[in-house]
Amino acid sequence: MKKQIPFALRLVRWFFPKLEWLSGGLAVEYFEKIFFSPLRYQAPEKELECEQQATLEEIVANGLKIQTYRWGDANKPYVLVMHGWAGRATQFRKFIPELIAAGYQVVGFDGPAHGKSSGKRTTILEFETALKMVVARWGIPAAAIAHSFGGGALLFSIMNGLPVKKLVNIASPTMADEIIKSYLRAINGSWKTGQRFKKLIEKKYGKPFEEFTAMHFIEHIKGLDLLLVHDGEDKDVPIIQAEKLLEKYPARLLRTSGLGHHRILKDEHVITACIDFIRN
């Protein structure tokens, strides 16, 4: 089923090119605001059922209220699942029973400003804080599985000391300009705004935007067992982003076809391959 585009996003798509024409400065400020403000999509019924099967716990640190979920036997080693931008932990609902059957419990959480966690705006820095909170609560995971932006957040956190030694990144973006262009496509924005945005980020954070992407993180990571899973027809995050990462790090790549960016999380072959990777 095709995801319905929220009215607010349709309005922005109509409005943003006009704002660019009126004022490039105002356009980049607005772009920066929406870049860090994830949409909250309503969870479908099957995800709500998955949530009801979980043990829920809210953890709080540094002003962040993070909703966590745990499935399975608390005495088993756990696999950490990390959703993508505008996502939810329950998007891994197809993985959960298979991981439990394989001898694991599963721990996930809604990132800051996502799902049932607090906040309206967030950054990869807050995702790192939340990931460290979860690992402090449940200990070192046997492995982690991430989707889309969640993969970048995990690589960033691993670079900064998060103790994860085995990671599956599914449909994860890696390249700075491609990440910005994907947002611009979503709102009918031009690359001129993208260039201004990069200057704004460097001024605000003291680092170029490139240093907040997986292509930079991976240069500072050693000893990570990494599997990339990517679909050749992913229009949101083209597979070249996984291929470019492979040029920098000895990861493995599982290529799929016809699954796109979201259905890849529900594919039985993908789930089996990920679990085999984790167990071996």
Question: What's the short version?
Answer:
The protein has 280 residues and is α/β, with parallel strands linked by helices.
What features would you describe in this structure?
This protein has 280 residues and is an alpha/beta fold. It is 42% helix and 17% strand. It has helices at residues 7-22, 24-35, 45-52, 95-101, 124-138, 149-159, 176-187, 191-205, 214-217, 240-246, 268-279, and strands spanning 55-61, 64-71, 78-82, 105-109, 143-147, 166-170, 225-231, 252-256. The chain has an 8-stranded mixed β-sheet, sandwiched between helices. Helix 1 (7-22) packs antiparallel against helix 2, helix 2 (24-35) crosses helix 8 (191-205) and helix 5 (124-138) packs across helix 6. The model has no long low-confidence stretch (mean pLDDT 95).
